[in-house]
Each structure stands twice: as structure tokens, then as C-alpha cells.
Amino acid sequence: MAETLIQNRRLIEADRTAVIPAEGELLYATDTKRLYIGDGTTAGGIPVGGTFFITEDMTLNVPSDYADINEALGYLASFRIKNTATVTIQVADGVYTYTETILVKHPDAQFIRIIGNESDPDSCEIKNPLQTYIIHVERCNLGYLGGFKLNGAADPVNYPEGVGVERRGLLVYFNASVMIGSMSAVNCHYGIHVYMNSVIRGVNITLSSNSHSGLIVQFNSSASFDGSCSCRDNAFAGVYVHSNSAFQSSGTGTEITSNDEYGIYILFNSIISVTNITVTGNTKKDIYALNASYARVTSSTYGTLSPALNAIGNSNSIITG
């Protein structure tokens, strides 16, 4: 009986990731001794058997190596990442229109950095005129996200089905966390939404012209701002802290100004502590606390408060300075 020899493509690992093997095609990395199978779309193929680890620093370039951030994350889904490695998804300058949410939920996301242009975030703009979330970090701890302008504006001409969607620029959800730097979120419903036992730390963040609030921190979650941050011209509040949640800002230069109703709005057993910030020019109140909430405001510039400074009011709430 004749034998049939099955051929597979053989490449070194550095060349493998540049190839998209056909569906069912085998690809063997000669230097790492690993076998992959093609599905016709995944660069480098899908690992066959076992768990493979990234052990050294690597950079995935978008769009030169991967068409978009989701494609790069899809590649990483086939691997675990050792704590000896950092994976950077580096996005080139440009305006990118997504129609699917950028979903981050890798089990080793703490070793992943997603970076645009940190010197000029406006030069790396991400739009999504269809989905509720532009970027969604869920049940993981993302190492770093920064250098982007997230623009939630609707596009009634090209994507009429997205009109009326209450879009979030960034959702950090369900025991998730992320370090954010040099980023803006505009024309969304919520610029950044921190939700359900989640945490963010932001440096040099701008949240403006959103149809509800720049930042909302909700349901046992917390947010911290450092550096020069700005929450302005939002339709309800610059910062909205809700239901056993916390907000802290200690960076000189942070401004929460010119929001249509409130600068900082705190309710339901929530707490804020701010130092060296400016909270002025907000239409109804600069800081408003109610339902057993507490605000500590030190070395800051502010105007109208409710309740008045050092007085208990609004259902057992207090603002101290």
C-alpha cells in the first residue's frame, strides 16, 4: 500500500506571523518546534494542542501587521503571556472607524499595552458609530491603554442604525481594571464608565462634550485621576459617582468646569477626595452630594456646593474642606 506524504509549510517563528495559512493548512515553526493550523484568516495560524506562552517582549503593529486592534487581540487569544513579557499593540496615527466593539478580556491582560499617539492623542482617533461601546475591558486587568481620541459621534448617513445609541467611549466592567494615559473621549453618552467592582487610574485625560457625563463610576467601583485632567462641557456632570463608589484626584491642573448641570455629582453612599483641582462654572452646582455621601475638598478652587461646606444635608451627606 502506497504511503502519502503530507507536506506542511515550514518557517521560522519571526516569518510565521506574517503568513495567513489556508484553512486546514499546517504550518511548522522550525525554531520553536511548534505546529499551527490555518483557518484562512488568522495570521500565523492557530496553535495545535497544548498551551503556548509568549515569554519575551513583542510589538504587534496596527495596521501594518494586523488590520485592527481586534485582529491583534485575536492573535493573542491563542497564547498565555508570561510575566517576563510585555506585549504592545502599537497603533499608527490615523482615523479608524470600527463597527465592532474592541473587547479586551485576555487572562493575562496585565501584560498587554494598547498604545496610539501619547504625544498627540487626537492624531490617533477611534470611532464606532454602531455599537454601545467603543472599547470594552471586561473581567481582566489591562496593563495600559493610552494615546487615543475616542469619538462616539453618530454617522446618520453611513450608519443610520447607530443613531440614538447611548455610546460609551470606554467601559471597564465586572472586576476589571486599567491604567489610562493621554486619552480623550468625546461625543459619547458616557466618556468613561467604570462599572461593577472595577477600577481605573487616569493620567492626562480629557472627557468633554458627552451627552450625559464625562466619567461615571458606579456600583462598588473607583477611579483616580492624576496629572492634568479635564472634564468639561458634558450635558449632565463632569464626574458622576454612584452607589458605594469612589473618586479621587490629586493632580495639580485638573479642571472640572462648564458642565451643563454639575461638576461632581455624588450619591448613594459614595465618596470623593479631591486636592489641588478646579471645580467651577458648572450650571447647577459645582459639587453636589446626596443620599449619605461624603466629599472631601482640599486646596482646591470651587464655587457652589450642596450641602454647604461642613453642614449635613441632602439626606445625611456632607462636604468638608
TrEMBL record:
Xref: SUPFAM superfamilies: Pectin lyase-like
Highest taxon, organism lineage: Bacteria
Domain Right handed beta helix: 190-304
Stretches assigned to the Major tropism determinant N-terminal domain: 7-42
One Pfam family here: Mtd_N
Gene3D superfamilies, per the entry: 2.10.10.30
InterPro entries: Beta_helix (IPR039448), Mtd_N (IPR041352), Pectin_lyase_fold/virulence (IPR011050)
Protein name: Right-handed parallel beta-helix repeat-containing protein
Species per Swiss-Prot/TrEMBL record: Geovibrio thiophilus
